[in-house]
Amino acid sequence: MADADVTLPCEPRDTKRTYLLTYSQADLARVPTTDCFAEIVLEALAQGKSTAKLIKWAACREPHADGGKHFHLIMHLSKPRKWSPLFDYIKDKWGFNVNFQYTTQGYLRGYRYVIKEKLVECVVHSPDHPDLASCRSPQSTKGFVTSSQNAKRRRLSKQLEKAAPAPPPVTPPPTNPTTAHHDKETPLRPPPTTQYKTPRVNKDDVTRFIKRNNLKTIEDLLGEAKRREVEGLPDIYNFIARQSEIMLETQIKMVWRLEGAPEVAARKKLSRMDVILSFMEKPCVEDCDGKWLEAAIEILDNNNINVFSFAQAMRECLIVGRAKYFNVFLHGPKNCGKSFLLNPLEDIFRCFMNPTEGKYCWVGLDDCEVAVLQDLRWSPNLIKWSDFLVLLEGQTVHLARPKNVFPTDLTIHKSNKLPFFASSKAPLVFLDSDNKEVTKETEMMDTRWKLIKFTYSMPEESLRRISECPHCFSVLLTRGMED
Description:
Residues 130-199 are annotated as: Disordered. This protein is of the alpha/beta class. The protein has helices spanning 2-7, 34-45, 84-94, 107-115, 141-163, 203-212, 218-231, 235-241, 245-259, 261-268, 272-278, 291-302, 307-320, 338-342, 345-348, 385-393, 439-446, 470-477; strands at residues 18-23, 54-63, 69-77, 99-102, 124-125, 327-331, 351-352, 370-373, 397-399, 410-412, 420-424, 449-453.
């Protein structure tokens, strides 16, 4: 028991809470799959009056050394329970016996015994089971051969030790009573124990871990690493402790950029309207059932805006991109539905959303498919008026970005026809140093937009919360479109 406490790197274990169930020489006609065996055990656990809760479990099927198959299921309960009712239930209903034992080695040791070298996909897990599979790189052929040879030597050594005759007992030499009291007794040392050394993982191992568990944010990675550390696997936890937050976020972002690269490349071959039309074939989002489309048409009707004209303006902006009279600008009072009509763009395209005021606030614009500037307020800290005119007109424009990160300024080339959609309470106005409007500058800005005016402000009691629906949005934009 002392050795086990030293070798297993986990929290203090809960005695008699981790259990291993085995069905040896299984009748595959009666229990054909691992899922079936797990369902039988879970059904039996639900019987009786025990208040012990099942925290997690894992099961698998493997070949028996003497032929046939057997099933293993390792489980962790909230507290001990009686097992006789479970065995009797399985025996009476299903006609077979299961072998049972509890382990004080912890759930991790039992889990490793169950899965052995199997792939995670070959093991049936409970819902929300922590990822306890190894994160180390696959073993090389040379390492596998060396490991097999060492294991074979150990087996032969044990067989020779068993076959060898026992050595004769050794008679200790007589002690001299005159000198015995001068000799100091040497205390017996306990046999050396091997401390468990947590294997170190590298970035490649963590990359596989991120993909295997579908971790999209740094919070997801930290949570899964902590769950492994609690179960006795601190490898990912230790790796994270040695990295900066920026490095971890960059790695997660790069993993999913690489995974989605083929889709991004294929999508770049599609026009923006092709992307819109692709959502026509997809269903509404949950709890929508056409409600978004009904609300959008109601908003346009309340503001005396023709549905077909609005859809045409949106389509032309997506097709032509940034150019005079093609960028869409919705303006009107509060609660008139301006933002509601533009919100689905964020669910369909890779959007550049509202920039914050600052010198480098437009970084990332060149990597986006659509720019959506909700509740737009212009100021010199946001962008120079002249640069904004050139940007909306469709010409090449250079914007600042930090030189300690990027080698050059941000360049939006003329070939990048990025469409702009915006909303605000009123069209943009240019004011001089005396806070007076410069009419010619304002008129130049107006020519960059397709201005759509909203006039009806909905009462607060009539407002409803409706989820953005890309399908309904695509249906709206195809209104009046010729086949």
